[in-house]
Amino acid sequence: MVIPMKRIIIVLILIIMCCTALCMTTVPSAPANRNPTTPPQTSVSNQQPVSGSATTPPAQPVKLIFLHHSSGENWLKDNNGGLGLALRENNYFVSDTNYNWGPVPEAGSEPIGSLTDIGHWWMWFRGPKSTEIIDAVYAESGQHASYSRMNTDPGGKNQILLFKSCYPNSNLGGNPGDPVPPIVANPLKGLDSGSEYHTVANAKGIYIDLLPYFQQHQDTLFIVITAPPVSNAKYAGNARAFNQWLVNDWLKDYPYKNIAVFDFYNVLTTNGGNAKTNDFNKETGNHHRWWQNAVQHTIDLTGGPHDTTAYATASDDDHPSVAGNQKATAEFVPLLNLAYNRWQAG
After folding, report:
1. Which residues constitute the domain of residue 324?
2. What is the pLDDT of residues 115-143, one digit of tens each?
3. What is the pTM of this model?
4. Cα–Cα distances in angstroms (integers) from residue 106 to residues 46, 128, 130, 138, 185, in the given order
5. In the predicted model, what is the mean pLDDT of residues 1-28?
6. Rounded to an integer, what distance in angstroms lies between the CA atom of residue 82 and that of residue 74?
7. Is 138 among the domain residues?
8. Does any domain span residue 119?
9. Cα–Cα distance, 24 to 29 (Å, whole number)
């Protein structure tokens, strides 16, 4: 049977049209690479050149207290993040608060140590019982988690106060550009991260209201540790925007040196290939660290934004993994030394 030439030409045209259509079809983008291996396509950096000696540990033991829950407890542990050991080796005498620690902030409430969400910091520093609470913080010399520390208490009050909220605080609602309410009208005061009022604007309002207290207590160095990221991307953009605000904008008009921010969130958003391998000391990835004699806060956008956790302990557990906590320890401690030396220099 002979096929007419006209029919052959028509078939060939159809084949060419199908191939063209396939080539023009949009291919779904690959999942964001959590282990960027090339220099950042785009990055946001805050680099401040400083003398190399600025990260030298204190010459004498300094008393430090860490207000935390389970993520902080893991970070401190010798067999996890090793933060307690690293602080000891850098001449800090470490104490901490944890669940069920301290005064009760209001009738029917849990002890203040059980309340470390963003809305709760108002109770610690600004609420009706804040004087009693913070006096107890300054006086605390005990351990409420397992970690190695100096054998001898150098005496006196705690000079450095670290405070951190847990990962559910990264689920911030609202929009980054929403107006910030005055503290008298801020509905997040005293509430947890599950509240409908846990929004970017209200969280900003809580932190803005802490500044007058910190200004009045320049004999203490306050270190804000941002909340760890979560796996769910629903509010990831809000978490990123809020922590960028804390690092870059919150202290713009604050004239003193007794506050610093460590972006624990950012550090935990890229890894070395999986949640059990970190990217400490890599040029690429997301970091907040001392790098080439400068403070470097870098957001690596290679492969898309990295705004969710890269170090989940399990598929249903967003507590940072050992590898993530160890990266955070290595990046945090030199910045703590820098903040301490700047504060001491006045």
Report:
1. 52-345
2. 999 999 999 999 999 999 999 999 999 99
3. 0.88
4. 41, 8, 11, 20, 19
5. 36
6. 8
7. yes
8. yes
9. 14
